[in-house]
UniProtKB/TrEMBL annotation:
<dbReference type="Pfam" id="PF01758">
    <property type="entry name" value="SBF"/>
</dbReference>
<feature type="transmembrane region" description="Helical">
    <location>
        <begin position="6"/>
        <end position="28"/>
    </location>
</feature>
<feature type="transmembrane region" description="Helical">
    <location>
        <begin position="234"/>
        <end position="254"/>
    </location>
</feature>
<feature type="transmembrane region" description="Helical">
    <location>
        <begin position="96"/>
        <end position="120"/>
    </location>
</feature>
<dbReference type="InterPro" id="IPR038770">
    <property type="entry name" value="Na+/solute_symporter_sf"/>
</dbReference>
<keyword id="KW-0472">Membrane</keyword>
<keyword id="KW-0812">Transmembrane</keyword>
<feature type="transmembrane region" description="Helical">
    <location>
        <begin position="66"/>
        <end position="84"/>
    </location>
</feature>
<keyword id="KW-1133">Transmembrane helix</keyword>
<protein>
    <submittedName>
        <fullName>Bile acid:sodium symporter family protein</fullName>
    </submittedName>
</protein>
<dbReference type="InterPro" id="IPR004710">
    <property type="entry name" value="Bilac:Na_transpt"/>
</dbReference>
<feature type="transmembrane region" description="Helical">
    <location>
        <begin position="140"/>
        <end position="159"/>
    </location>
</feature>
<feature type="transmembrane region" description="Helical">
    <location>
        <begin position="40"/>
        <end position="60"/>
    </location>
</feature>
<feature type="transmembrane region" description="Helical">
    <location>
        <begin position="260"/>
        <end position="280"/>
    </location>
</feature>
<dbReference type="InterPro" id="IPR002657">
    <property type="entry name" value="BilAc:Na_symport/Acr3"/>
</dbReference>
<feature type="transmembrane region" description="Helical">
    <location>
        <begin position="201"/>
        <end position="222"/>
    </location>
</feature>
<feature type="transmembrane region" description="Helical">
    <location>
        <begin position="171"/>
        <end position="189"/>
    </location>
</feature>
Length: 288
């Protein structure tokens, strides 16, 4: 019962406040710039929807991961970026508006790409052909309630009460940072048994995949001559996945608990790489 309250009430409320605090620092001009100059968004789509699944497949093959675990890693690689990536982008001094926009775009695109990738993975690693149904209503509900509404509310508060927002925004951001740490602690506690039992086998692969994709996302954006803030953002958006959706696909849609193990591990361990990346990038990205 307590676990259900944490999952269904506490975590969504924390994520909503984090997104609200990020919205306090955004204006319509931030999003207008992305629409007028969509190159960063297009590079992010290439990294997330092309490079991530390809690199995951190559690593799974090279490291000899097989069967349900291989499919599980391909499922996490085919999921959209998670909402917590936006907070990591803020901590890394990246482009928060780009992060929020990409999270929304990626969630919509996943409806079309995920069934194809997962069905192909099932056939490749397990020799089974199965139609995969994406939980569209759940994804749309997540986007609306955890992303659109809190961010829009924060932006409205900033527009209506600009002076007060400038004074309160640092406090809200500090609270959001503490709440983000609470999310990490809860995620570790919830998946402690999985972490303990699979740390020496699957955990190193999960950490390696995360670090590789952080680096690839950043480097591809840098090669595309995007700004440093945008490059940092796309590194994070390429590697931080919606682990909740991966668990739903594995356990509820496919009814294969073994496939959920890689998603649960990655959903916790990706924060280690993400926080390390954010800490390093803060030293190189100009505050302005």
């Amino acid at each position: 019962m307590q676990g259900e309250i944490v999952t269904t009430v506490l975590l969504p409320a924390i994520l909503a406040f984090i997104m609200f605090s990020l919205g306090l620092g955004l204006t319509l001009g931030d999003f207008r710039r992305i629409i007028v100059q969509p190159r960063a968004l297009l590079v992010g789509v290439f990294c997330h929807f092309v490079l991530l699944p390809v690199v995951c497949y190559l690593m799974v093959t090279a490291f000899g991961v097989t069967g349900a675990f291989a499919v599980g890693f391909m499922i996490i690689a085919s999921c959209p970026t998670g909402s917590t990536s936006n907070m990591l982008t803020y901590l890394a001094r990246g482009d928060v508006a780009l992060a929020v926009s990409f999270t929304a775009v990626a969630s919509v695109m996943t409806m079309f790409t995920l069934p194809f990738i997962v069905a192909w993975s099932l056939n490749t690693f397990m020799g089974t052909q199965q139609t995969v149904q994406v939980p569209v209503s759940m994804m749309m509900g997540q986007i609306f309630m955890l992303l659109a509404v809190p961010v829009a509310t924060g932006m409205v508060v900033r527009h209506v009460w600009p002076e007060g927002t400038k004074r309160r925004e640092p406090v809200a951001t500090r609270i959001a940072t503490v709440l983000f740490i609470i999310i990490l602690v809860l995620a570790i506690a919830k998946n402690w048994t999985l972490l303990r039992d699979n740390f020496t086998t699957l955990a190193p692969f999960a950490v390696g995949l995360n670090l590789v994709m952080l680096a690839i996302g950043f480097l591809v954006a840098w090669i595309a001559r995007l700004s440093r803030k945008q490059s940092v953002t796309l590194g994070i958006e390429t590697a931080m996945q919606n682990a909740t959706l991966a668990l739903v696909i594995s356990s509820t849609v496919l009814k294969q608990d073994a496939m959920a193990v890689p998603g649960a591990l990655y959903g916790v361990l990706m924060y280690a790489g993400g926080l390390l990346f954010a800490a390093l990038m803060r030293r190189f990205v100009n505050k302005d």
